[in-house]
Amino acid sequence: MTDAALNVHPEQPTSEELLARILSSLDDDKAEDVVSIDLRGKSEMADYMVIASGRSSRQVASMSEKLTDRLKQEFGRQCKVEGKAAGDWVLIDAGDVIVHVFRPEVREFYQLEKMWMSPGEAVAATRN
Predict the structure, then answer these.
(1) Three-state helix/strand/coil letters over 13-34
(2) By C-alpha distance, which of 63, 93, 91, 62 is closest to 80?
(3) What is the pLDDT of residues 64-75, one digit of tens each?
(4) Which domains, and CATH codes, for the chain?
(5) pTM above 0.90, yes or no
(6) Pick from 73, 67, 60: which is nearest to 19 by CA?
(7) Are 67 and 81 in contact (CB under 8 A)?
């Protein structure tokens, strides 16, 4: 049997390739206010964090499900997912990249960007 027939993914993507695919998936699904934060040197939990918003609980849950399906299909990556049932804040642990997908009101309340970005980065992110 071939690798494709077994759905085996011998080469895992680099954290940069994984980040690029995550950003592409979120863009495809019309995520809003997408911010990526470089965590290298700040945390050992991941290399990058991505924060995005959906307009409704349904869109948040749908974007999260599509993202995890794409990562499984393309990279054989099983992601850990929390919060999809409620659709207010979904946390996706893709290994080297942690993804948070929020409804806008919930994102505004928690303000994760301010916690993880330097003050200059946070100001620039809010202007975009």
Answers:
(1) CCHHHHHHHHHHHHHHCCCEEE
(2) 93
(3) 999 999 999 999
(4) 13-127 (3.30.460.10)
(5) no
(6) 67
(7) no
